[in-house]
Amino acid sequence: MKKILLMAVAAVMAISASAQETIKKVRVYKDGAVAYEEKYDAVDSIVFVDVEIPAVPEGALAGKFTINADGDQIQFSQGNLQATNNGGTWTWSFAEHQYDYIGNAAANTSINGNGTVSANGTVDLFGWSTAATTYGIHNRTSSSTYSGDFIDWGTNAISNGGNEANLWRTLTKDEWYYIFYTRTNAATLFGLGSVNGVNGTILLPDNWTLPAGATFEASTAHGLAVQDGYYYNENGDNFSHNTYTAEQWSAMEAAGAVFLPAAGDREGSNVYFVGSIGDYWSATPYGADYAYDLGFYSSGLDPRTYDRYGGFSVRLVR
After folding, report:
1. Which residues is 49 bridged to in the sheet?
2. How many DSSP H helices and E strands does the chain contain?
3. 175: nearest Cα among 292, 93, 77, 289
4. Where are the domains of the chain?
5. Are 124 and 82 in contact (CB under 8 A)?
6. What is the C-alpha radius of gyration for the chain, rounded to an integer number of angstroms?
7. What are the strands of the beta sheet with 121-123, ordered from one edge?
8. If residue 54 lies in a helix (H) or strand (E), which one and from where to where?
9. Residues 233-282 pLDDT 10s
C-alpha cells in the first residue's frame, strides 16, 4: 500500500461577506491546473486527509505494459479468466496462479448448450463473447451462432479482482500487437518457455529489472524472428528457451513478469493441444464470423484470425 496525500497548490473559495460564510464553489489547483471543482451551498470546513490507495489493484500483477503510441499502460490479471458453474449459476474469477488452467476437464468438456453444462465445474476456454452466447460458453461449432457485437468478459464482477463489474477488459488486436511488436524493446521483452512444468509465453513489463539470481532469455535470441509479419522459429524449440520452477517464477512475477499458459483450444466439448498451443482472444472482430486472437506454439507467435466458435483462453487487463 502507498499513501497519497490529497494536495493543492492553491484552493480558491468564493466566500460571501455574510455571517453564514456561504461558499459557492471550491476549486482545487495542482501544478497550475484545475484538479477538482465542486459547487456547495454551504460547508463548515475543508479537511485534507491521507487516502490509502492499493499499490496494485486486487487481482492485478505489478508490471505495466504500454499498449499504444499515446503511452497508455495496462496491468494484466493474476491468471486466466475462469467461470465456475454451480447449479446453473456462473461465478467469475481469475486462476490462482498464472500457470493454472483447466484443460481437458469439466466443465470445458461438459458444455452442452448456451451457458449450460452437464456437470458442474470450471470453464476457461471460451468462444468469442457476444450477446448471442453466454460469454462464449457454448458448444456450437458454427461461427454464425456467435454473431453480433463483442460483449467484454470484463463486464462481469470478478470475485478475486475487485468483485465489481466493468473493472477489467479484453485487449484489442492492435494492443496485443503493440506489446509484442511495437513498444520500446518489444523483441527483447518476451520469451517462450515453461513455468512449473507448463509451457507458455513470458511477457516482461516496460521497466524490467531482472531479479537477483534469476535468468531470462528472449526467444528472439534463439532463432525466433519476424517473417512475413509474424514471429517464426524454424527450430521449433520455443518452449525450451526458459525454464522456471514455481519458486523461481515467484521472484519473476514479483518483478512484474506475466505468463500466458499454453492451455489448448476447445471445439464444441472437445479440448485439444493442451500444453502445445495457447490462443488468447482479443476484443477485435474480423468480419461477421471471425475475430482476432494471439496465438503461440513451439515454432511461432502471432496475432491471427480464427472462427468465433473457437474455445480460447482469456486474460483480462485494467
Report:
1. none
2. 2, 23
3. 292
4. 2-53, 65-307
5. yes
6. 23
7. 89-94, 81-86, 121-123
8. none
9. 999 999 999 999 999 999 999 999 999 999 999 999 999 999 999 999 99
